[in-house]
Automatic annotation (TrEMBL), chain A:
Topological relation to the membrane, as annotated: Multi-pass membrane protein
Listed InterPro entries: ABC_transp_permease, LivM-like
Transmembrane region(s): 20-41, 47-66, 78-97, 103-123, 130-153, 178-198, 228-246, 266-290, 302-324
Lineage: Bacteria, Pseudomonadati, Pseudomonadota, Alphaproteobacteria, Hyphomicrobiales
Name of the featured protein: Branched-chain amino acid transport system permease protein
Main location (coarse class): membrane
Hydrolase in keyword set: no
From TrEMBL, chain B:
Organism: Pseudochelatococcus lubricantis
Name the UniProt record assigns to this protein: Branched-chain amino acid transport system ATP-binding protein
Keyword Transport annotated: yes
GO function terms (MF aspect): ATP binding
InterPro entries per UniProt: AAA+_ATPase, ABC_AA/LPS_Transport, ABC_transporter-like_ATP-bd, BCA_ABC_TP_C, P-loop_NTPase
Organism ancestry: Bacteria, Pseudomonadati, Pseudomonadota, Alphaproteobacteria, Hyphomicrobiales
């Protein structure tokens, strides 16, 4: 009575797997371009490119961490910006107490984010689907309003950092080029770490749960501990993005963790292609470049942006990555 | 219904949705190495019973004892770890995984911690070798690297059983393993189950009466959630209530599948 429907092979799943393999090359290409970018600014003398590229890589880092749970865990977290905020405020609050070392700030940021992820994730993962989205959104907003009410660190107005963090007492990050390569190194490191996780025993359980949670229980897995672990890892990486963001703009504000920011991170992941790791990097680049470009035409740039997003979602299932692949490769696989 | 040395003992198991009684005081004893088939008209509650035995659905009353341990309240994954695995009526494989990966992940579930984050699992020799051995037992070796979603329907049904086997289970609950298969595919699966009888205890839900009567050690007939008869095939075939309710009075060899009972579960 139902057998005929089970014969349909979900082609998009196959496509995702193929693109994960090619994603390595795509990422390599993007990292190579990024690494060579400072040469271009040397020629043109336009340092602004470097600033934009650094910003792209910081958001790429946050989007990459979101892809770990969204793309590989099918956990639609609508509160991921909270972790970016935790990272940023770790820098601000420690600065207020005279601690400016980047490594110390990063460690504290990761520890606090991991703890926040552990507690909120354990509660959120008791729910599924839309309820998971709503509860992660709620936790994100709680943190947002907490930071607004903390007037000691600027409240709604934010907190201006007097300088960038130091590395072993040296003000290395003050140089934009050093800042740029530091962010690139963190991004590449996070990408390699995420790839390793996905290919490990742990990652296989995570991917299996994404495809069919009941099947996983039927072979003897309780999926929640694995999903929670992924949630904690993703939150910790996002906190690093927050540390870097605070340093780049030398300013921290509750706006970093508003639900709109969380939504933008989801857009970056979807725009670039979920479950590919390289996709979110491309997605972050596309998002921020479009933002720069469209906002130069009109303050209503989000209207045009929405239209572009609509087209990508409707006509290119694999996001920007899938589109590029189709343009280059032509035919479908399978 | 004395407390025997049965591997699986079900006592007065029930399941209700409000006033609707889906499983009605079911008691069964399945000794080790028995192939027990549950038949019944559509909507009799066969799949619900499998859901309750496997832990997919909670029961409202009664007791399930497996290998001497009360597992009535255990979740599905813990029952699997104790050796009670199931397949699904509607094929539920990991379609994006290869056949080998589908089996290897079941091997992984019972061999060591899966909180390992570094080594690439695709190159885990121990998991792959064990998975390949299970595939070979089912004649699926040459399909090992095909994605499960691209396999034929019959191969998917075989892979379902392979995955259940790979969990290391002593007892398998197979929910309509022949559903939707062609004549040839079905013959392969029947021989497979005949071979499994030598090593495993099985509960089978099946509509194909040829298969049922050729495989079963014992048959239980479920109608409206109640076991109306239970015993060796010949006995069940001759049972007057069974003939009336299910097999049809005039011809007991071939059962009209859609006989009686709506409800459509």
């Amino acid at each position: 009575m139902n057998s005929s429907t089970t014969n349909i092979a979900p082609a998009h799943l196959a496509e995702v797997r193929v693109s994960f393999r090619t994603a390595g090359f795509a990422a390599l290409a993007m990292f190579a371009i990024l690494a060579a970018l400072p040469l271009l600014t040397l020629v043109t003398g336009d340092a602004f490119v470097l600033v934009v590229a650094t910003r792209i890589m910081i958001f790429a880092l946050a989007a990459l961490s979101l892809d770990l749970i969204l793309g590989f865990g099918a956990l639609v977290s609508f509160g991921h910006a909270a972790f970016v905020g935790i990272g940023a405020y770790a820098v601000a609050i420690l600065n207020a107490y005279g601690v400016n070392d980047l490594l110390v700030q990063s460690l504290v940021a990761v520890a606090v984010a991991a703890l926040f992820a552990l507690v909120t994730g354990a509660i959120s993962l008791r729910t599924r689907g839309v309820y998971f989205i709503m509860i992660t959104l709620a936790f994100g907003q709680m943190l947002y309003f907490l930071m607004i009410s903390l007037s000691a660190f600027g409240g709604d107005d934010g907190y201006t950092l007097p300088a960038r963090s130091t590395v072993l007492g040296m003000p290395l990050l003050e140089n934009n080029l050093v800042m740029f390569y530091t962010v690139l190194a963190v991004l590449v490191g996070a990408f390699l770490l995420a790839r390793m996780l996905i290919a490990s025993r742990f990652g296989r359980v995570l991917r299996g749960t994404r495809d069919n949670a009941v099947r996983m229980q039927a072979i003897g897995f309780s999926p929640s501990p694995y999903q929670l672990t992924a949630y904690v890892i993703a939150g910790s990486i996002a906190a690093l993005a927050g540390v870097l963001l605070a340093n780049q703009v030398e300013f921290v504000s509750p706006a970093y963790m508003s639900w709109q920011r969380s939504g933008e991170l989801i857009v970056m992941v979807v725009l670039g292609g979920m479950g590919t790791l390289a996709g979110p990097i491309a997605g972050a680049a596309a998002f921020i470049l479009l933002e720069e470009w469209l906002s130069s035409f009109s303050q209503h740039w989000k209207l045009g942006f929405g239209l572009i997003l609509l087209l990508v979602v409707l006509f290119s299932k694999g996001g920007v990555g899938g589109l590029v692949k189709r343009l280059l490769g032509g035919a479908h696989h399978g | 219904m004395a407390e025997t040395g049965a591997l699986l003992s079900v006592r007065n198991l029930s399941k209700t949705y409000g006033a609707l009684v889906v499983t009605d005081n079911v008691s069964l004893d399945i000794p080790e190495r028995e192939l027990h088939v549950i038949i019944g008209p559509n909507g009799a509650g066969k799949t619900t019973l499998i859901h309750q035995l496997s832990g997919r659905l909670p029961s409202n009353g009664g007791k399930v004892v497996f290998a001497g341990e009360d597992i009535t309240r255990l979740p599905m994954h813990q029952r699997v770890r104790r050796g009670l695995a199931r397949s699904f009526q509607i094929t539920a494989l990991l379609d994006g995984f290869t056949a080998l990966e589908n089996v290897a992940i079941a091997v992984q579930a019972r061999s060591g911690s899966s909180f390992r984050f570094f080594a690439p699992v695709a190159r885990d020799r121990k998991l792959n070798d064990e998975a390949m051995a299970v595939l070979a037992r089912l004649g699926l070796e040459d399909r090992a690297h095909r994605r499960a979603g691209t396999l034929s329907h019959g191969e998917k049904r075989q892979l379902e059983i392979a995955v259940a086997l790979a969990t290391g289970a002593r007892m398998l609950l197979l929910d309509e393993p022949l559903a939707g298969t062609s004549h040839e595919e079905s013959a392969v699966l029947v021989e497979l189950m005949r071979a499994l009888k030598q090593t495993h205890t099985l509960i089978l839900i099946e509509h194909d009466m040829d298969a049922v009567f050729s495989l079963a050690d014992r048959i239980s007939v479920l109608v409206y959630g109640k076991v109306i008869a239970s015993g060796p095939p010949a006995e069940v075939r001759a049972h007057p209530e069974v003939r009336a309710a299910y097999l049809g009075d005039e011809q007991a060899d071939k059962a009209p599948e859609a006989a009686a009972a709506g409800g459509g579960r």
